[in-house]
Amino acid sequence: MKRQQADPTTVVGAGPAGLAATITLARAERPVQLFERHESVGQRFHGDMQGLENWSGDEDVLDRLRSLGIATDFAWRGFDEVTFYDSRLRPAIARTKRPLFYLVRRGPEADTLDSALLRQARDAGAEIRLGAPALVAGPGTIVATGPRKADGIAVGYLFRTDLPDQAHAIVHPTIAPGAYAYLLIWDGRATLATCVFRDLKGWKPALDAAADTFMRLVPGLRLDDARRFGGYGALLGRTRYSDESGRLYAGEAAGLQDAEWGFGMVTAMRSGVLAADSLINGREYAERARHDFDAARAAGLVNRAVWERSPRRLMDGALRFEAGRGDLPGRLQRHWAPSPMKSILARTLLAGFHDRLHDVDRTCHETSCRCLRCACADVPRPEGGLRTVEGRHAALRAGWPAMIGRPRRPGAPGGTTDATTAGANASAIRP
């Protein structure tokens, strides 16, 4: 079939959300250009493992992706046994009839989720521009550039091991403040990490404690030749699906990450597909996204508040009780399920959160704006400077790149950072 002749849709960011949107548009015979500032997809990842939760819907998550038009031709491994440890490091083994989650690898290697999505987008006929920051983002652009700020981080180690496949998780206030630590081993590769959702500056002692504890708990575990990695997420901000200029936001750029435990890849791909489908069929994306995601987002915020405020002994008892029962995926699905009461409580909770998703230069948010986030680059300033809307837009017309953050003087450190981040749900931490 001959591809329709029309102005191409622009997608910014080659993470799961941006690639899912690109695949959907290209398969609908819509011309599409995907811009990614890095030279490859998943460049901030190095084969580290992440989980596709298998409790967020009625059907198996891999079948759910296939129903969205996403082929599951990436490497994956389902886990139906996980050992949990409470704050006293007492083990509780959860065994499930269906996989609790599916591990996937992230990064530019051939078998990762990122590379598989890139292949699908190219096979569908999309124009992929790697190593090419998007200069402008006009109406109808799908922005999938990941989070701007961090209120949760994950930091850990990647290493090889001879141990068999296994999964462990620790819920402990100092090993993983406000969150959990995990050890995942699959086919000779291991990821050991701690998630820190409180006191982010204390990530180093938390990581040290997580590594020491797992080496005590798991016989034969050694961190020889381990490489450190890290990433961040925005868990607590409000959602934003479109703006005054008609841009569409998907994935973490829209604020879509689970506030309780930080899962987000499935929702990111769902939002990317929904944004593309809305453009294809002329439907209102923001309204559809609010219907599909906001109630679940509210449930996550309430669950996060309960997690943080519950006494430790109560959480220990609940963890051990739930791990020992059957059908853990079904019970987690009910736990994640939205309700009118959770939606009401979430509005109260959000009033106390700094609104990171809207922490932007308001002088540039007008209907004529086409920049991603205005700032200056390491090039001469245009006449009139950059402190006015007119000056910034004149800079864009002259070919200036859109940048993250506030204007930087030429030659300043970080003066070449731009807004088209990998869109992939994590960014390297530099210790």
Any chance you could write out the topology, listing elements then pairs?
Blueprint: E1 9-12, H1 16-27, E2 32-36, E3 49-53, H2 61-67, E4 76-79, E5 81-85, E6 91-95, E7 101-105, H3 113-123, E8 127-130, E9 142-143, E10 152-160, E11 166-170, E12 181-186, E13 189-196, H4 203-217, E14 227-233, E15 248-249, H5 265-281, H6 285-309, H7 312-323, H8 328-336, H9 340-350, H10 389-397
Parallel strand pairs: 1-2, 1-9, 2-8, 5-11, 9-15
Antiparallel strand pairs: 3-7, 4-7, 5-6, 10-13, 10-14, 11-12, 12-13
**For this structure, what is the CATH homologous superfamily of the domain at 9-70 and 109-145 and 237-311 and 340-350?**
FAD/NAD(P)-binding domain
Task: Tell me the fraction of residues in β-strands, as a range.
Answer: 15-25%
Count the DSSP helices: 10
Taking the alpha carbons of the first and last residues, their distance comes to: 51 Å
CATH class designation of the domain at 9-70 and 109-145 and 237-311 and 340-350 = Alpha Beta
Number of strands: 15
- Summarize the main sheet: 7 strands, mixed
Low-confidence stretches: 354-366, 373-389, 395-431
Overall pLDDT confidence:
82
Q: Kindly state the percentage of residues in helix.
A: 25-40%
Q: What name does the CATH topology of the domain at 9-70 and 109-145 and 237-311 and 340-350 carry?
A: FAD/NAD(P)-binding domain
Global shape: globular
Q: What is the chain-wise order of helices and strands?
A: EHEEHEEEEHEEEEEEHEEHHHHHH
Q: How do the strands line up in the largest sheet? A: 6-5-11-12-13-10-14
Rounded to an integer in angstroms, the radius of gyration calculated over CA atoms is 22 Å
